[in-house]
Every structure is written in C-alpha cells, then in structure tokens.
Amino acid sequence: MNTLIAASSHSRCGGATRAPHSAILPRGGKTSTTATTTSSRTQFFREHRTTAPTRRRRQEMKTRRSISSSASNTEGAAKVTNENDWDADQLMRSSLRLYDTPDCRNLLVVGPGVLGSLVCQKWLEMFPAAIVVGQTNSTKNHERLEKMGITARTEGAFEYFDPKSYPYVVFSAPPSGSDDYPGEIKKALEKWNGKNRHSGFCFTSSSAVFPDNIDCDDDTATLNLGKNPRADRLLNAENVVLEHENRKKENESRDNNEREEGKDKYYKNRAAVLRLAGLYHSSRGAHTYFMKAGTIDSRPDALVNCIHYEDAADLVVKVLLREDAQRNIFLGCDGHPITREDVATCALESGCFDDDGEEKHIKPKFTKSEGPVGRRMTCKGTEKALDWTPKYTSFRDFFDKDTNKGYDSFVEESSPFGWNHSTKSS
After folding, report:
1. Which structural domain, as residue segments, surrounds residue 178?
2. Distances from the Cα of 21 to the Cαs of 5, 25, 26, in angstroms?
3. pTM of this prediction?
C-alpha cells in the first residue's frame, strides 16, 4: 500500500531528514498493517540517512574515549560510560570523582630523573592501577617516561582530566633546575592531599647539610645557616617542608584536642625530608668522574658515603607508605664509607670498565695529603623506623666480581632508561 509521509524539519544535530513514527500514515488516515508500516519506515531511512558523524558527535566521542582511558587507570575504577546522555561535562565530573576515593594511590613525582623514575617504576609494580604523573621542566624526556607507563607533564600543562591533588607526592628535582627552589616545593605541597587516609610527601635532600670530619647519623645536628652556600639552599628547602608540617599540626590540634595515650595522633601522614648520601649506579656516580679525571685535588683517604639508586628509590617508597610517622626526617646511606682512592680502585678492578678504545679509565692521582677527611655516616634510626636495609650493602659489594659484578637490575636491553652499560664478569 502506498503511504503519505509528512515532511519533517531538518535535524540540527544530525543533518538528516527525519520522519517521526506518527508521521507515517496510510492513505485515508487509517491504520496500516504492521508489516507494511515497518517496510515503509525501513525504506525511508535507507533513502534519507547519513553515515557521516557530525562535528559535535565526533567531539563527544573523543571526549568519551579520553575519559574512559583515564578512568581505567584509576585503582578500583570502573570504565566510565553513559549510553543515554552525551553531556561531556557530566562525563568529566564522573571521572574526576574517581580520584577522591580514600584508597586512591595516585602519585606525583616532581623531577622524575634517575631516582624519580625508579620510584615511579616501583610504585607501578606495587599499585598497577594507580595514576603516576612525572612533572618535568621540559618535554625532552616525555617519550621515555610514557614508555614506562608514567604520565608526563610540564608545570602549567596539566590536562583538565588530570587529578588536581595527589595523596602521594615526591619532590626529587635538584636545586640546579630552579631559580626559586623553595617556591617549587611550596607548589608541590599545594598539590598534595595530606588529608587522605593513605598519603605521604617526601622531599629528597642531601647529606651535604651535615658538617665535615664527624661521625653522624639520623639525629646529628646540621650546619647552621650561613656556613655553606650549598647547605643553605638545601636547609631552606627542608624548612619549607618542616614548617608546612608545623602549621598543619597546629591547625589540626585546634580542631580536635583528642590524643592517644603516649602518642600524638596527628603525626600521621606528615611530610618528610629524606637526606641521601652519594647516589650511584653502574655508570653514574663519583667513580665515573674519578676514573676519567686523571688528577684530583683531594687527599686519597677522604671518605665517600654512598647509596645505590635502587636502594634510595626503595627508601623513598618506604617513607611514603610508613604508618608510624612520628619521625619525619630520615637519612639514607649504606653505612659503609669508602675512601676516594678505593672508589676508583673497586670500579676499575670490577672489569665493568675495560677500555674499548673510545674512553680511557685510569686510577687517578690525588694531589693533597691534608684537608677534610669527610663524614662517617650511619642511619640506624631510619633502618629501624622504616624496617629497611639496603639491597647493596656497600659500594665495594656492588662492584665485587663474586657478588653483584656491578650489575644494576634495571639495566636491560629494553630498558626505557637507555642505559646499556656493559656488565662484564671477567
């Protein structure tokens, strides 16, 4: 039976001419059979439909894919879908709420260099669903970070759907990368959500804040301000973190005066300072400089305190996840100081730096017999508080032919770090 089709207005969204169900009527206004009506409707839409998505629909589909991808990386988060409502703002708000859960384990690392990248790796191994963001000064290393599963961002270039605050924050950027080092730490503290049930903030400082020629540990007094320019910069940065905690504690104490017997309940989730000794791995550290320098203006028996990058990264994670936070200043070292001369000797005798014709590695000549000997450091307080012991017990142990042979566990052919240092056992 022939049918009369009432003309419909042009659709603003789809651009196709649409005929509503009530507009399909048989001649004479009587109801047609179901089969005839269905056939006519199908034929009409075959003739008038458009397959090209509109600009608005393409944008909505793009937004939805972005939100679904972000939400799938959040711990315990279900994929965000909204079949009946394409409101992009509503979808965005739904995804952002996923970041505010009490069990959220998202992490921000400001300065994801060697140490920061290893922290990110360890964190993703422990919390695969967490969003881990590495904040850098430039986009130079973003490709490397993305290959590791780290969301790379520069300051001021965060996306709308990125978390606005993070329960865990690590500041591991060096002072040399900023004209206002304390100011950068303040910005990082503003992004830290310390009120979350699980949270932690760690600023990686240096053992350079201690005086020379002493035996020191976690509780040794630091240099006074004005004694050493390098130490001053680090101490001013540490004070930003420590003063933040003092203000936070005072505010919380005013809000609630309850105390646990023999313990201040407000010590939980305190921002922490981690002072690290000389960092090294197989192809980075004091030994690489000593073997190329030729002559060194120092005494050969001057002491060097060390900690391997892997052990330092493990220690940062321990600081973030600690439950008893009464202590918030820590020290990281392997507890076995070694002389500068022995640093070069151990590395050379390991066989890891056999000359290949391009680069010469030789034992340096030390030109002085007097001067500072250096510090002899231990960190028993940190080890006890965090239940931590270094994987590499000493620099000598790391390069020993019969133990580790100078091999970093993260150095592989497919390593995203791009380090292909030879680990010969001969």
Report:
1. 107-257+265-278+309-333+374-397
2. 10, 9, 12
3. 0.71
